[in-house]
Write a structure and sequence with these properties.
Blueprint (H helix, E strand, L loop, with lengths): L7 H5 L2 E3 L5 E3 L22 H4 L4 H51 L9 H6 L11 E4 L2 E8 L4 E8 L8 E4 L4 E3 L7 E2 L2 E2 L5 E2 L3
Antiparallel strand pairs: 1-2, 3-4, 4-5, 5-6, 6-7, 7-10, 8-9
């Protein structure tokens, strides 16, 4: 048993007797007459300038820089998107024209153009080109055929701001741009009012 009248050494090291009579020394502890230190709040390093956040002027400068970059980048991004949509619309009209040329020579006995559904069933168009029209890459497409005289037409009208120009094509294979008619393609006839041909 440890005595209360310990020496300085005994107050720091307590001895215990175990059955096998071996003495095990435990880790020194803080003397009873010495108060346990309280947790101290770490002191900030450096001056007050290094500890504070951004000033209002600095934040305003950052916001202005971001606004300038956005004002330059966003219009260019939208213009690139419109150009990509218009290029996709032109390519889709060429696909329809090519399928019509194949259909009239193989399925239409050289005197009848096919609808989108007929050309799709014949394996000349994929499943996107079905019905009387479809939507692709921000454009709405309309297609129609006429038997007398034998002809077809298709147009592409932009949805909202996805494009600027309206395109159209007919049995001549010539693509028109800038069409202004309310319904450029109707009953197999392409109304080219206000438009101009695109050089293929």
């Amino acid at each position: 048993m440890c005595s209360r009248n310990w020496s300085d050494y005994h107050r720091n090291c307590c001895w215990f007797v175990i059955p096998n009579y071996l003495f095990i020394e435990r880790e020194p502890h803080i003397p009873l007459d010495k108060p346990r230190p309280l947790l101290e709040t770490p002191k900030p390093e450096g001056n007050m300038r290094s500890q504070r956040g951004f000033s209002l002027i600095e934040l305003l400068v950052v916001v202005i820089i971001i606004a300038v970059i956005a004002a330059i980048a966003i219009p260019s991004l939208l213009a690139s998107r419109r150009a990509a949509n218009e290029a996709s619309a032109i390519q889709s009209l060429r696909t329809i024209s090519s399928a019509e040329s194949t259909y009239i020579g193989t399925q239409g006995s050289n005197n009848s153009y096919g609808t989108l559904n007929q050309m799709n069933a014949a394996g000349m168009l994929d499943d996107m080109f079905v019905g009387g029209g479809f939507t692709k890459s921000g454009y709405t497409f309309t297609h129609s055929v006429a038997a007398t005289p034998n002809r077809f037409c298709a147009d592409a009208t932009p949805i909202a701001t996805n494009g600027i120009r309206i395109f159209g094509i007919n049995e001549s294979g010539l693509i028109w741009q800038g069409l202004t008619a309310a319904t450029p393609c109707d009953t197999g006839v392409l109304d080219t009012t206000g438009g101009s041909p695109i050089q293929n």
